[in-house]
């Protein structure tokens, strides 16, 4: 705990057997109280590794439901365990768990209710092996969203995020997509509710074991980002109404 606030790390897992142990062993258990792993019907040994590591809260989807659906299960479980600070960490070791201290304390000390680990601040993305086409797309989409939404984030696409329970309880997450665009919808919901987001520089590691969506799905995600941004703008201006912002 941090100042009596319960800290829970959630791991949305899919075929993470090769990197799960390395990720788990770097989690700072001096402040982290619980770990929740949700397996999205992996085809590898993710469940076996999770049990060998002693992770108590392990959930498994009976079918592959998607990245967004995995996060929904993660957050529902974390909130049911009465977590005060919930940190979403990918178990593919793309992001270092060593930043959990910094992210959690910003929330525990009531500085910010949401903290994200940014790969774009500094030179972490390219140095860590992010493909150039993804880096360029990231920069373009982030610029577009900052203009349309009226914010100044360095990126909207990181998978390393920390939230206060207050934030998660206020969002209409169940109406979000079950696919990758869930992340982006969630950030737009957070801004719509008036919460501020902090960013810290996060080194990144891309490897063969790190999960990554292919080019076609990246294109689908990019178009989804443009759509969500426009929806946010129209809803904010009261020109149209969208369920995810209600």
Automatic annotation (TrEMBL):
Signal peptide: none annotated. Residues 9-169 form the Glycosyltransferase 2-like domain. It holds the Pfam family Glycos_transf_2. One of its GO terms (molecular function) is acyltransferase activity. Transmembrane segments: none annotated. Keywords: Acyltransferase, Lipoprotein, Transferase. This is Bifunctional apolipoprotein N-acyltransferase/polyprenol monophosphomannose synthase. It comes from Kordia antarctica. The gene is ppm1_2.
């Amino acid at each position: 705990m941090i100042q009596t606030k319960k800290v829970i790390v959630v791991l949305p897992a899919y075929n993470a057997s090769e990197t799960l142990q390395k990720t788990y062993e770097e989690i700072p258990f001096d402040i982290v109280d619980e770990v929740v792993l949700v397996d999205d019907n992996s085809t590898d040994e993710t469940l076996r590794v999770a049990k060998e590591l002693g992770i108590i809260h392990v959930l498994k989807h009976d079918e592959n439901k998607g990245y967004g659906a995995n996060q929904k299960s993660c957050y529902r479980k974390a909130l049911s365990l009465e977590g005060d600070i919930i940190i979403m960490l990918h178990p593919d070791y793309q992001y270092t768990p060593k930043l959990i201290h910094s992210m959690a304390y910003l929330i525990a000390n009531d500085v910010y209710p949401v903290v994200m680990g940014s790969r774009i601040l500094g030179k972490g993305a390219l140095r860590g092996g992010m493909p150039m086409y993804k880096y360029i797309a990231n920069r373009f989409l982030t610029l577009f969203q900052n203009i349309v939404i009226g914010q100044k984030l360095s990126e909207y696409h990181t998978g390393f995020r920390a939230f206060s329970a207050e934030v998660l309880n206020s969002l209409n997450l169940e109406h979000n997509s079950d696919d990758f665009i869930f992340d982006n919808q969630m950030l737009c919901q957070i801004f719509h509710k008036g919460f501020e987001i902090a960013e810290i520089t996060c080194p990144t590691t891309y490897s063969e074991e790190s999960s990554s969506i292919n080019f076609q799905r990246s294109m689908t995600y990019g178009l989804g980002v443009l759509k969500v941004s426009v929806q946010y703008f129209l809803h904010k201006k009261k020109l149209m109404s969208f369920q995810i912002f209600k």
